[in-house]
Amino acid sequence: MKKLFRARASILTLMAATVLMACGNSDANNSDTSSDGSAASSADSINPDLPYIGIMQLTTHPALDQIGEGIIDQLEEAGYVDGETATIDFQNAQGDQSNMQSIAERFVSNDADIMIGIATPAAQALANASSDIPIILGAITDPVAASLVDSLEKPGGNITGVSDKTPARDQFVLIQQLLPEAETIGILYSSAEDNSISSAKEAEEIAASLGLKTVTKTVTSTNDIAQVAESLASEVDAIYVPTDNTIASGLATLIPVADAYNIPVFPAVDTMVEEGGLATIGLNQYALGTQTGAVAADILAGADPATYPVQYATGIQLVINQAKADQLGITIPDDIAQNAIFVGEGE
């Protein structure tokens, strides 16, 4: 692993490509932007005596925003405060592949001590840019399938971090508990995301093992969601969405279609329940961020990513949207309600 905190000769120039900062806590995410939309950060005037931490977030949606906030907060807890004891360069690629490449090149050219990728495509872009600089995975469902590590136990290279794999079997059991008459579950995901492909396959296998039929449809971008969701909703009793950044970004399009057919959406991610999904057993996204930040701090302190096992995210919780349940006429059984976190009206 490279020697950390080495001197740097060059001064950072602003990246030409437009990259917007993540939504959320403006202090935590360095989300001040200039009039042209380029990110503002203490990285714009590097102090060569401080560690440089590059963070790339794939796009803006609540789940990833909360992960980013958690990372920044945990780094601060570990003593890495932007502009004081570290240079934290937080960039949001807004889902654009060319932005991801530019951001990765920006971090490498500025001799980053560590890089953090929030979501699989962001982490893949960083991995493509460097096989030397330590890379921390944040919100990567299947790092092995995404060709980022050799194995979770022994990553084997310059990459380690946290997997956001959710308890899919528990999620399907929850569907059966809330919809005991359901027979066919729709699975909707983006075929452009490696994490979604592996998650969808697992979902199909779990559903079959529980005696459920599935209808699976894919999108390649948010522009496809309305038409594909319309077709899917007409064939199923509920829609399941695995961990998928494309669907998360276009959830506001999916929910009205499902509502029109009076069927619920069961997302894998907790923040998507508050945005209109019915329920999930999933991860607390902010806690996932703090766990990722803790891994980053360990690597900055000298741990070797090649032998540092990839962790599974902790903090599983049952989340139910009471307003959506009321809207769809679904009664939440008492034994489930007593263990749930309720969001939405009537929480």
TrEMBL record:
Keywords: Signal. CDD domains: PBP1_ABC_unchar_transporter. InterPro entries: ABC_SBP_TrpX-like, ABC_transpt-TYRBP-like, Peripla_BP_I. It comes from Trichococcus pasteurii. It comes from the Bacteria. It holds the Pfam family ABC_sub_bind. Residues 1-22 form the signal peptide. This is Abc transporter substrate-binding protein. NCBIfam families: ABC_SBP_TrpX. The keyword Manganese does not apply.
